[in-house]
Amino acid sequence: SVSETMTSLTIFLLSLQLLSISAFDFMQNFENSFFEIQVDRDHPDNLYKEFEEFQVKYKRQYKDEIEKKFRFEQFVRSHNQVGKMNKKAETSGHDTKFGINKFSDRSKDEISSMFSKVGPSNISQSNIPMFDMKNFRVKRQMEGLPKMFDLRNKKIGGRYIIGDIKNQGECSCCWAFAATSLAEVAYSVHLKKPVVLSDQEVCDCAAKERPGCSGALPTDGLHYIKEMGLAKETEYEYSQERSTELGRCDAEKHERDLNPLMLDYYFIDPFNAEYIITHHLVQLNLPVSVAFKVGESLKWYKEGTLELADCEDEKEQHWHSATIIGYGTSTNSAGRKVNYWILRNSWATDWGETGYARIVRGTDYCSMESHGNGARIPDE
Length: 380
Hints:
With 380 residues, the chain is an alpha+beta fold. The protein has two domains: 2-92, no CATH class; 112-376, Cysteine proteinases (Cathepsin B, Chain A, Alpha-Beta Complex), CATH 3.90.70.10. The chain has helices spanning 2-18, 23-29, 38-42, 44-57, 65-92, 108-112, 138-142, 174-191, 199-205, 218-228, 273-284, 296-299, and strands at residues 97-98, 149-150, 155-156, 159-160, 264-267, 288-293, 301-303, 305-306, 319-331, 337-344, 356-360, 372-376. The strands form three sheets. Strands 2, 5, 6, 8, 9, 10, 11 and 12 form an eight-stranded mixed beta sheet that branches. Helix 1 packs parallel to helix 4, helix 8 packs across helix 9 and helix 8 crosses helix 10 (218-228). Residues 51-111 form the Cathepsin propeptide inhibitor domain. Residues 1-23 form the signal peptide. Keywords: Signal.
């Protein structure tokens, strides 16, 4: 009723006074976006309570009332976006769930700083070899492969071949994490024991005339690792602030664990990407890195199989890189079978499905299957 709505709004505005936010300023800021979601319109006090819970969960301490107001504005916008995407997923019959997460009080520009503006189409990569398919027959290679596969379940030397989820922080160094992930699994398979290599060295040293946090491609990282080798993570640890400027490469101070010229890397043929990637996973026990376009859906992904390909909706195109470590099939809420990839991200375990996502497979989601890379260490 109107009276109930007014009562809820009064409670909410009283709460805002605790943050030194005037009701007038708040309504001016949110005239178009705040009332997009019906449940918020009916119970704005609940939204404020969610923001308080968010601050506790993610240990937020804002420097002053001005920042607190700004962060609340971003939280409301994020809440609106999540609500709209959940509604769209539901009406589309998808089983995807989106939710508030650690990015929810960040501005769009701040979130975009985690992504790269450098896309595969911007750079000539003609000198990088394609995966050799001369002995690869698609139909024969696919026969007998399991319907589901997950590298997280594979062990080598008594330990799981896929290590812990890492966290790139607010540095656009996803490309380095993806490249390092390929190298350390390939090296683990070669040594028959798990190793963890340095993402920071790749981020500091491989971006070619740019700070590593300004973005690059997995192939930049793979090229560096092939030429220069790589130190262990314990030798050259990660710090998200290091690669915001040039001249931070300290590779010469750290012993090589993976030696130069050991690693081979290559492109995955986009026309046969699904088959080649599954071959790498099942028969070689190797992941594949992918570079793909980013939309709102990836940022707010919580669980389920992501089918909403909204990456072309962005005014400014951003790219992200991660690794595919498995595949499977789910049934969405409409009863339709959906094939998916298991994506290993570098946003810590409090994003997605404990750091992973299931992304629709076989549709070239946001160009994901068009820009894959593999890496291996050849037998001597």
